Amino acid sequence: MSWQGIEGHDAVVERFRRSLVAGRLPSTFLFVGPAGIGKRAFALQLAKTLLCEASPPSHMAPCNACVSCRQVEAGTHPDLETVAKEPDRTEFRIELLIGDLEHRMQEGLIPRLSLKPTRGQRKIAILDDADFLNVASANCLLKTLEEPPLGSVLILLGTSEQKQLPTIRSRCQIVRFRPLPEETVAKLLLEKGIVNDPFEAERLAALSGGGLQQATALADATLLEFRRHLLAQLARPRWNSVALAKSINAFVEDAGKEAPPRRERLRRVIGFCADFYHQLMIYQSGGEAPADPQLREAVAAAAGDWGGDAASAADRLERCLDALAHVDANAHPITATEAWIDDLAHAPL
Ligand SMILES: [Zn+2]
């Protein structure tokens, strides 16, 4: 089933349908789920539904033809505000919410959201990258989350509940988006022209963990090859931590001269390791081996002879998540990688 071209989230669609039919739509949401599964597309479609001037929201069928629908599509609707962390920053700056020092409360999302709607009944805001809100930015959102302007809807997008500050989490309706089924990922890869060969689409979908973003990243043969190399190392009972850190650092530097693409690549490499230890932990607790063939092979090999148990895998998973947090907090990539890999290699079994 798909809702207006949005695949794989029927349960979430039903939840919104029920609230809208009952006329009880909460005003603050936190959408969580892995990157690349369509949370932003869903939020935009919901905005279109709520702003459409031809079809009532409870029908969940925006007409796609009225001025309002066309403006949402073009990103020009005066009552739809969107904001995201700047790509070259590691934190979601407070200025994006309340303006800089000279324009406090004159610019930014919060004052814009409190203006009267221009076209219709409400204003809608989509705040992307909520994982990166720092304490100051989160604090200045609290009042808006508690007492949103009448009729407004604020949607925060993040990858997991754990990454949100408790003050934010407790003030939002949490909507969980599940990873997409493999066949949906394969279909989307073909539809969006990311790959043209159906076999390639299926192969990438199997490695995607249910996210289009990972599938798209792995369409890059270099990244796919590095993942294979990395998993082969991790699968061995012992490995040379200095050599592995060196090869990761060289791979990260190959992403380009600028910091953002390097950081993005390192995040992905750490993500591969986190996935590996997560799956190893599940497998060693008696759970199923992962469907992804590369990961399955590595997990089965490791479980056979590394000598650790589910708790040892969980420790290492935690270390990977810490490393990811350090990278997001702008730690120096080379130093962060060396410390992280050294910890993984020498953590007790
Ligand atoms: Zn419309």
Quick recap:
The chain is of the alpha/beta class and 349 residues long.
- For this structure, what is the CATH homologous superfamily of the largest domain? P-loop containing nucleotide triphosphate hydrolases
Radius of gyration: 22 Å
Indicate the proportion of strand residues.
Answer: 5-15%
Could you say which overall geometry the principal axes of the C-alpha atoms support?
A: globular
Distance between the termini: 45 Å
**SSE-based structural type:** alpha/beta
Compute the number of strand runs.
Answer: 7
- Give the helix tally: 16
Largest β sheet strand count, sense and barrel closure: 5 strands, parallel
What's the number of structural domains? 2
Mean pLDDT: 93
Q: What is the string of SSEs from the N terminus onward?
A: EEHEHHEHHEHEHEHHHHHHHHH
Per the CATH scheme, the topology name of the largest domain is Rossmann fold
Under the CATH scheme, the architecture of the largest domain is 3-Layer(aba) Sandwich
The percentage helix is 40-55%
**What are the bound molecules?**
zinc ion
**Spans with pLDDT under 50 lasting ≥5 residues?**
none
| Broad CATH class of the largest domain | Alpha Beta
Strand order, sheet with most strands:
4-5-6-3-7
Offer a few descriptive terms:
alpha/beta, Rossmann fold, 2 domains, two-stranded antiparallel ribbon, binds zinc ion, five-stranded parallel β-sheet, globular, 349 residues
